Structures are given as C-alpha cells and as structure tokens.
C-alpha cells in the first residue's frame, strides 16, 4: 500500500511538472510569435513612414532612395510632383495664403517674410537696393530675403521676380538689348534664344530666379503705349520669337509637360499679358478688346500656345478686358481655357495692382477700395494663383483668410494655386540652391553680351528709303570724308535710345547706364581724319555752306511705357524735330535715323530726305550697331514687323485688312548693296 501510494504520488508530481512546462513553453512561443508580429508590423510601418516622409537607405516603389528623418519634399532625388504633394500636406491655411502673396521689396524685411510666410518678393520698375546698385548689393538684398524665408517652419524659399523687358534693365551696368519692336524685325529665332540666355545669366548673377518676360502681345494698334513690347502685329512672327523662352529657361526635353528650368544659370520665364492686351479699342492701355473667341485664338493666343509647349513657368494676367469682362476676373479664359484646354500647369500671376482694378478700377491710384474683398474673391476663383499685391499685404492676407473660412473661396482652389507655386519653386531649383551664385557676377554687362546686343541692333534696323532717285543711293556712308554733321538730341543720349523700362519705369533722358551713344558709334567708325560736328538743336541755315559731306539726323520719341505712352491723335515727331529735318536736309545730303517704339507719321517730310532708317529702341549698344550698318560693314537685314501707316486716321490698320493702304507695307525693308564685309 505504501509502495503503491508512493508511485502514484510520483506519477502525479511528474504530470503536474509536465503541465507547468507545457504552459511555460506555450507562453514562450506565444511571446516569440507576438514579438515577431510586432517587429513585422513595425518594419512595415517604418517603411510606410519613410516612403511618405522621405529618406535614404530604403527604396520606394519607384526605386529611389529616401533618407531616414528627412522630409520627402526636401529630397532632391524625388519627383517634383511627389515633393509638392508632401509639402502641401504639411502646410496650414496661413502658410498657403502666404505663398500666394507677392510683395514689393521696399516693404519686405525679415520679420515680414517670416511672420507672413511670404511666397514671393518683387522689384517694381526702378525699385533697387540703391542708386547705381552694384551686383554685390543686389546679391546681399536677395540673399537676405531668402535667409528669412528659409527660417520659417517649413523652410519654403521665396521666389524673387523682376521685369526683364530688354535685358536686366533695372540694374545699372547691365546689357540693354533692343526692345521687342525692333527684335521682331530681325525674324531671327536663334538670335532671340541667345538674348534669352544672356539675360538669364545677368539676372541670376543678382540672385534673382524669375523674370517677367517675354511679352507675347500682338499689338494691332500703335497708339497703344506698350506697343514697343510687342514683336509684331502678326501672330506668327510673335509665335516664332518665343524662342527667347528657350534661352531663358533652357530647351525642355521632348514630351516635357509643365514648367521647365534647366539649371541654376537659367530663370523661370513669364509670358505676358494674358490675353488680348494688344487688341484694345483705339490702342488704349488696359482697355477693352472687342473680338470673338475665334479671333482671340487666331490673333492673340498663338504666342501662349507656343510658350506652354516650351514649358514656360508662369503667365501674367492682363489689365485689359475681353468684351467687357476684366481679365483678372475671367474664369472662362483663365481656368477653362488656359489651365484646362491649353494645359498650362505653371503659375498664373496677377499684374501690379491688377486685382485692385477689377471692381474699383483705380489700381495704384487708390488701392484696395471698398470693392477689394469681392475683387479678391473674383480673382482667386477665376484662377489667379499668386497676387502681386504689392504693398498692402496685411489686408490681402486677412481678406483671403476670411473668404476661405466663409467658404467663398474653396480650399481646392487654394490647393491648386499653391501646388502650382511650389511646382515652379521646385523646378527652378530653389530648394537645392536658394542663394545667388556669386561666380556669375561678371556676367552683368559682360563684353560678350554687349557684342550680342550690337548684333541685335544691326539685325533690327530697317532701311525704308535710300536715295531721292533710283540709282542715287546715299548709303552706305563713306568713312573717309573731311567733315560730317550729326544733329538731334537722340544722337548722344543713352536714355533716349533705350526707351521706357530702363533703370526706371518710364525711362528717362541722360547717361542713365553705361553704353555707346549713336554719336560715339559714328565717331569710332569714321577715319581719324574725319571731323564729326555734333549739334543737338541746330539753328535754321546753320548747315549751309559748311562743307559737310552728309548729315546724320537722329530724331525720335521721348521714353514712355503703358498708359503714359498712349497717343490717340498725334503719332508724329515733335514740331521742332520736323523743322530740323526740313532745315538740315535742304542744305546737306542727309539720312534720318528714327528712334521710336512704333511707326510715326513720316509722309510730310519723307520726300526731303535722302535716306530713312527705322532704328526703334536699340538699347545700350545702339551706337556701334547703327554705325556698323550705316557705314557699310554690314548689310541691312531687318524688315517691318508692323505696318507703317500714312496717317493716324487710318488706324488700326494691319496686314491683311481689306482697307490696307500703308506708307510702307508689313515685311518691307530695303538692301543698300555695296557692303564691305559681313
């Protein structure tokens, strides 16, 4: 009994021990399995986080590497669209509105940029860091703004924008190319691309990555004060010269879709001003363009179609109206047509005070009037992505927030706008290289760029008359004569030969920037034994009997732009200049060289002159370029890109009109022969 009981007890003990071990083993295996599951889920979660946030060491589905702990939007190896989506998802409403705000440099400082998350700073015309500011001063300013922008929560760089109508013309010492009115006469797309390349280098040298150029307006009436910014009255000429975008941004790869900027020596371009600004009634600046949609497409839209194909980064909206509807509030054209049908994926920018003008129509004269809140609503909902405020940014930001929170501007519209803004910033390379490249400093006004500008002057000149009779040409002029006369203030004035949008908004007379005047070009071209006499305002009869072999009479308009240049009734030279032509050309064989932003009435005095040359607004290298051709080292190549009318009452008159009776037809341009060398 005792033995049996002992065995039984031992068996029971062993059974209890086996059950305990089994429980421990089961618990152990459950722990291991659970641990493994936690590890697996942790790895999956980490991978998911890295794919969303960015980092390197882990491959995404696209095969790109991302860095642990680095936000995806800061990873340059990621696609631009992925970076945009990632950054947009991190932004607050305030940050998004800040990105849609562009303010003038004069109201910009570190605190303003940081506290408001400002997306862009702009130089208004003539707004510079100082009188005759050096490249170093420009760089110090732009880099300072950028440092502030980068110190914000998300470190989004600001994008600095500036006008570049004919070179980096706000900057003292920059190369000033001929205005578009002259470049259109070259019919030379390759030349325009090279000018774009040179302009981009000079702009980038000052730390600026964004330019408001080219104008692709089709000027149909020279009474318009901005006609000189248009290449031509012919949309095909305008379309063909959008190659300047290729020079500014770089040539986009085949099949590219969206904004394109090749590298840090290129800039984001801005085609302007959308659309129909060159077709307003009577050529009135910011007026009303009355035309059907087919006509708008066939005449005024072609330059934009081509610009979008080239990957233009931005488009600026026109002050003007289309059939009575302000362009800044025209959702059909801005969103349905431009962004929808035409597939524009870049940034749509308002004009200077453009939003203010929608309802109140007063712009800079009385900004942000009682209708401003509604104007902001109309503009943003129409499709404008960034507003050139440019000064009173606080009310704009406040109004934007009010309109969004009240549901009057949908969040989807805000996200679309900011997506476009960020897309341009990423594509421009601002995240990887936000500051100025100081190695480019010597590009501003570089000798090679001035040589290019000189070539552009030569190719833009149009010979309209050469000889009072057949077989009696005056041109080319001889360099080896005893004595020549040069008359007219325009012959010795850099400011007058450059025109508007040079150093200041309206331009001005005087030695406003380095260059070569027409007089200086003549003096360098003739022989050392030739006496050159200059008289800016000769008295009647003063040229008679003085032994001059010939006279070069330089006449033209004063500088102007936009509404200040509107001239509805009197597109003629000042009376004093017409009298000067009459007096001098009665006594000496003469060539008249006209400096102007458009054709002017010439018929009253044309028969009195031996030769007539349209030089347009030739820029800083006018003297050398004009002398190259007048003295026969190069042949005239330019042909008229717009019709030269007989009288103002014929306007508007364009090639192809049923009523077409010009003084010189579109496409006209003479050769002189006897050229000594090319």
Automatic annotation (TrEMBL):
It is an enzyme of class 3 (hydrolase). One of its GO terms (molecular function) is beta-glucosidase activity. The chain crosses the membrane at residues 28-52. It catalyses: Hydrolysis of terminal, non-reducing beta-D-glucosyl residues with release of beta-D-glucose. GO terms for biological process: glucan catabolic process. Belongs to the glycosyl hydrolase 3 family. This is beta-glucosidase. It comes from Ceratodon purpureus. The lineage of its organism: Eukaryota, Viridiplantae, Streptophyta, Embryophyta, Bryophyta.
